[in-house]
Amino acid sequence: MSHRRITKRKAVLAGAAAVGIAAAAILLPQAYAGQDGARSGAMAPRTMSAASASELLQQLVRQLGDSYGGAYYDAGKQQLVVNVVGDDNDINVQVKKAGAVPRSVQNSAVKLTAAKDTLSRKATVPGTSWALDPRTNQVLVTADRTVAGERWDKLESAVADLGPGVARIKRSTGEFRTFAEGGDAIFGGGARCSLGFNVTTQDGSPGFLTAGHCGVAAEQWSEEAGGQPIGTVQEAVFPGEGDFALVTYDDPGTEAPSAVDTGDGQTVAITQAADAAVGQDVIRMGSTTGLNDGQVTGLDATVNYPEGTVSGLIQTNVCAEPGDSGGALFTADGTAVGLTSGGSGDCTGGGETFFQPVTTALEAVGAQIGDGNGAGDGADNGGAGDDSGAGGAEDGGAGADGGADDNGGGDAGADGRDEVGGNDTGGDATGDGDSAQVN
User: Fold this and answer.
1) For the whole model, what pTM was predicted?
2) Which residues are catalytic?
3) Is 256 helix (H, G, I), strand (E, B) or coil?
4) Which CATH number fits the domain that encloses residue 315?
5) Can you point out the beta strands (E) in 321-396?
6) How many independent structural domains does the chain possess?
7) pLDDT per residue as tens digits for the range 209-231
């Protein structure tokens, strides 16, 4: 398989980079049995991969009902931690028998989701964001440096009205924006973005996912600035309920390998897509900053970009910069998790970056992770969000999903931030340096 850039007959490998992947090369086991350990006692927590934790969580969310308070993946111990509201011992026993670790908390996932919805109604101002953080069992609210005066007062008041212990605010020193400028670089309408993941479309033809704010910026995309178009946008969502676009290759015979090009002739085969989990280790590839890694810090994030509000995103501490938009967010074992949307900061000073979940994008456009090869041969990977993890991802981080979301995303820059309380960061979808930035 060729690793060079797209030619007339060969598609770009998702997410180009000039950095090696050695720093994040630890593979996680995926099977429930055999590779998942810590089975010495009937009630002992089970060690498992993030993907296995995601599958287990889907079952527990349905069983726990109103007692469920979110969940996260403890990457160090390789265990699923499930937040439980109340002191019902039967619930704790149920969680333990399933192999997870119960943790008593104050807020239910339903309560936190309602609080987040309240913020969306009462405190939507550019430069802010909020996400569910199951590790703190709170809604984490982030305000960038442009939020001041009446807008800051409005935000503080809205958070206080939610009641004690429900949400907290953190100040970011950067400015939220989308990261559209420039996996492999793609060019369209004067913008540069990153290719996320190659997919097989509903009719079996090859295509790829990228950021929605890139898709609305230009209809056709090429592998070189001013070059011959190689793909045409079929669907794009931004702003609103997501930030993703489906681009189909103009040549139906294009070979579109299901892999992320990590630079130096190396690739990571992408075999599936899954929901993200808070605490999960992830890797981002982008055409500007290459390969960077970090962790998922929040789920179901709402970001108020200058161009509009985007909901349902993954929040991380992975860095990214303009041009990384649309790039792949994945795991070392080859699971697609997300697509780079935007954030604050850069890869020098740090910040927050938000990603579109891949599973959601796949389901919306009816595509599958896999090689197109003109006939959809590679459509054997769980596309359309089939392997999405935790059903209750809206709930306080109930995203103990293993693997990375199917979003191919470039990293967003992780700004240094002054804590005022919350961890959520928002990002404006603007290409300039004002407010939340879209990569």
Assistant:
1) 0.75
2) 213, 243, 325
3) coil
4) 2.40.10.120
5) 328-330, 335-343, 353-357, 368-369
6) 2
7) 999 999 999 999 999 999 999 99
